[in-house]
């Protein structure tokens, strides 16, 4: 089946630094990817919709300058958490839609960010 | 505005007993409903979906769900739970088969031996 890969799975960084998380669709092209944030024991909160070749669409309340999203190719979207602070610590999950097949939505394994 | 609710934070069941995880929704228009499972520190795994057609949907790992339009529900069921079914379960809703999903709060399932 289709696979979505996220990297890194875990990252620890110091306050003020920037962290990049990659989301790759391994065996299909994904014109649309979604980025979610999940706090402990809570649901997934959609942050933004990443569209290949165009600007991401951010959900209300999500700072676009804080969470930079780039979808430069049909198989890769990146989320960069800029000037990270401890409150940015969270589990970030991406998903990609396989429009070329069934339109199924596939999820990455998630990336655990800890900001010290 | 559309919404999806999972009224139970946690469901406890003994291994071998039936498992039910509840989900209700509110939407104008036709709903597309999904169930996902999440193991600790992992992404979401797809279990099943309702788009149209038969109200009883069969999915992965022996799970099934019944779409009930009159009760606006899409409860997840498994006839005989396994300890390995212990995980966090999410119901999700969209009104556009290609669109973004709205997730319920999640239900923690604990299956005891």
Structural description of this entry:
The complex is a heterodimer of chains A (about 120) and B (about 110). Chain A has about 120 residues and is mostly beta strands. Chain A is about 0% helix and about 55% strand. Chain A is built from no helices and eleven strands. In chain A, the strands form two sheets. In chain A, strands 2, 4, 5, 6, 9, 10 and 11 form a seven-stranded mixed β-sheet that branches. The radius of gyration of chain A is 13 Å and the shape is globular. The termini of chain A are far apart. Chain B has about 110 residues and is mainly β. Chains A and B meet through strand 5, strand 9 and strand 10 of A and strand 6 and strand 11 of B.
Summarize the structure.
In chain A, a hairpin with a 5-residue loop joins strand 5 and strand 6 (57-58). Chain A is 0% helix and 53% strand. With 116 residues, chain A is mainly beta.
Number of strands of chain B: 12
What is the number of helical segments of chain A per DSSP (H or I, 4+ residues)? 0
Order of helices and strands of chain B: EEEEEEEEEEEE
The low-confidence parts of chain B are none
Mean model confidence by pLDDT of chain B: 93
* Beta fraction of chain B: over 45%
**Helicity of chain A, in percent?**
under 10%
Shape of chain A: globular
Total beta strands of chain A = 11
Distance between the termini of chain B: 41 Å
**DSSP helix fraction of chain B:** under 10%
How many strands, which pairing sense, and closed or not: the largest β-sheet of chain A? 7 strands, mixed
Please give the count of helices of chain B: 0
Which H/E pattern describes the elements of chain A?
EEEEEEEEEEE
Overall 3D shape of chain B: globular
Rg of chain B from C-alpha positions? 13 Å
Average pLDDT of chain A: 90
Distance between the termini of chain A: 37 Å
Which structural class do you get from the secondary structure elements of chain B?
A: mainly beta
What percent strand of chain A?
over 45%
